[in-house]
Amino acid sequence: MTQYHLAAISFTLFALAAAGFLTAGSLVRMLMFLELMLNAANIALVALGTPASQAYAVMLFAIAAAEAGVGLALIITLATAFKTLEAGNIKELKG
Amino acid sequence: MEGNYYPLLKWILAAPLAGFALNGLLGRKLLGEKAGGVIGSLAIFVSFVFAAMSLADLLNLPADHRLLRDTLYTWISAGSFSVDAAFRFDPLSAVMALIVTGVSFLIHVYSAGYMKGDAGYNRYFAYLNLFVFFMLALVLADNPLVMFVGWEGVGLCSYLLIGFWYEDHEKASAGKKAFITNRVGDAGFLLGLMLLSALLAAKGVFSMDFATLEKNAPLLTSVTVLGMGAPTLICLLLFFGATGKSAQFPLYVWLPDAMAGPTPVSALIHAATMVTAGVYMLARLQFLYVLAPAALEVVLVTGCFTAFFAAVIALLQKDIKKVLAYSTISQLGYMFMAAGAGAFSASVFHLATHAFFKALLFLGAGSVIHGLSGEQDLFKMGGLRRQMPFTFLLMAAGWLAIAGVPGLSGFYSKDLILEKVFEHGGALAWGVGVVTAGLTAFYTTRLFVLAFLRDRRGGAHAHESPLSMTLPMTALALLALAGGFLLKDRLFAFLEPGALPSAEQAPQAARLMAISVTAGLTGIAAAVLLTLPRAANFLKNTMAQFHAVIYHKFYVDELYGLMIIRPLKFFSNRVLFQLVDAGLIDGFMVNGPARASYAAGRALAKVQNGRLDLYALVFAIGVALMLFWIV
Questions:
Q1: B152-203, pLDDT tens digit by residue?
Q2: Is there a contact between B94 and B147 (Cβ–Cβ < 8 Å)?
Q3: Exposed/middle/buried for A5, CB within 10 Å: 0-12, 13-18, 19+?
Q4: Cα-to-chain-centroid distance, residue B513
Q5: Strand partners, B598
């Protein structure tokens, strides 16, 4: 399994996750796809194989964990405020 | 060029300016009425004394080197072109400066009595002093640019003084009319100056003072502009400026309306100062005009026509000041006739005598108006010789002087002009001039008879004017009576030292004189007879149409209104205001961008629909595009 394979897996995963992010209706699913995208980036970093990139990968775990925490907290607040988690129904950002 | 440096000249100008500053800045509250009048008059008197001292020094110089100069500083310096703020005092400016300061001083003293109790007393004297300052700058200027400063300055002051009682809408608009009409002429003057300096610069002459211009003017004869000789075009443009200032056809219309100002102002503007500016300018630039005989012909014809035309209008005016206004236009026409015939000194001579007797007549009219508490209608006067004996006698002097009674000042100067015109070969112009002399005698006699002789027709109480008004008039009356006799030889010896004393009179001179005197006397006699009520009514009824046309001043104002003012107003309102200003500038260029950005905001606001998934999609597309661009 070469670097290229790993990179290919990473890109494929990213593309799938991005597609999922765009098509998922629920905010929870969108958050999960977001995590997947981060993981895809992580794979790419590991695949580079340099010590620095592997250190970045560890940092990214931490960021992903923090992001998941903040994201879940936001989602819970939204859920209590709007009684729904469908992205299409929350239009607070309308200009 | 620095010869004869003479530092006194600037003080001739400084005195009225100081008077203006004192009266204008301290004004009524700090200075009060009495001190303001004294300062205003004193300033002009000081100026007069300085001018007289300069004259004494000028006379000590040899006759063909009579020139004093005073350069203040270099005014404009652009490359090799330079203009100094400089003044000159030669015979011509000396005569003008003395007339301006002398007559103005008398008018200032008179004003102190006439304007007593007016709310704008100090403002009035401030304007008056400023006016004299600019007039002196005009006559003492050493180059046409300084002259132009004075030229514009008197225009400004005439606006301020004519519209002095600005609360009255009609008077305020008379001031505007004077100013705007003058601006039309000034445009011609300015164009002439530009052309002159441009053409001379092309010939390598970069200095504008009169001595240099005189020396280099012949260079221009070889230049052709717009199909005519450069001197001709320049002279015509400058003359157009003169028709504005000196109220010649077709720009004379402002002068009759300018009677809206206080009467001493009329005397000042229309006798001694502003209106003489054009005549002075021609005399000053005579070296240019002699190069352009065609332009001189235009001057002659314009002067001749204006003299006759205005005299005819003056015949039937009802307002005492309007008669004098048209008379002024007519007399200025004489001066231009003389200039057109090449007799510039004769025109300055008439300028001087006219300054005396016309100032006297205006001041007399002012005295009558003052005595009748503002009545200006001749038909409501009559019999004033009993109530106003001094004014009656003084006006009689002015009347006889302007009517051309032999021995008085108007006779000498007018006769000289007619003689010169005849010698010049303008037999027709001479004929018109003689007829005009008759008309002049007629309308002044009519004015005098209607105001002072016969019986009272109006009911208003009349009283004699105070001494501060009659004394200056007495001085002017003496000048009007004796000025012509005293000046007739001395002035010419002074102005044209090179010319031979005219011992050999033209053979026909005596006959010409007899004819014009006869015309004058006929005019007087006719006026005495025709102002009898029965004769006047008979004439009015038999020639009703003529009467109407003349009475309405040949409808020139109406014609201007129809031909110039209405199209101009229409153009200004419809095209310039509604289309260009409101439509193009306001509508398109100012409001347009505002509306465009507003509409763009509206359109872009639709994109912000608040849907997170769409935002994400757009974001993703953006990222994809960026990737595409990078890879």
A1: 999 899 889 888 888 888 888 888 888 888 888 899 999 999 988 888 888 8
A2: no
A3: exposed
A4: 30
A5: none
Residue of A nearest to B605 (CA): A95
| CA–CA separation, B405 and B401 (whole Å) | 6
Read off the pLDDT of residues B27-77 as tens digits, 9 standing for 90 and up: 777 777 788 888 889 999 999 999 999 888 888 888 777 888 888 888 888
Centroid of chain to Cα B389:
32
Torsion of CA B429, B430, B433, B434, to 10 degrees: -150
Contacts of B610 in chain A (CB under 8 A): 90-95
State whether B610 and A87 contact (CB < 8 Å).
no
Pairing of strands B224-225, B81-89: unpaired
The whole-model pTM stands at: 0.78
Question: Is ipTM over 0.85?
Answer: no
- Interchain CB distance below 8 Å, A90 and B612: yes
Among residues B271, B124, B143, B270, the alpha carbon closest in space to that of B216 is found at: B143
Cis peptide before B250 (omega within 30 of 0): yes
b or e along B172-202 (b: 16 or more beta carbons within 10 Å of the residue's beta carbon)? bbbbebbbebbebbbebbbbbbebbbebbee
* Cβ A84 vs Cβ B603: under 8 Å: no
Q: In B42-131, where do the E strands start and end?
A: 68-78, 81-89
Q: Return the residue of A nearest to B616 by Cα.
A: A22
Instruction: Give chain A positions within 8 Å (CB) of B611.
Output: 87-88, 91, 93-94
* Backbone dihedral region for residue B611 (phi beyond 0: left; psi -120 to 50: alpha; all else: beta): beta
Rounded Cα distance between B248 and B229, Å, is: 24
The structure tokens listed for B17 are 């300016």
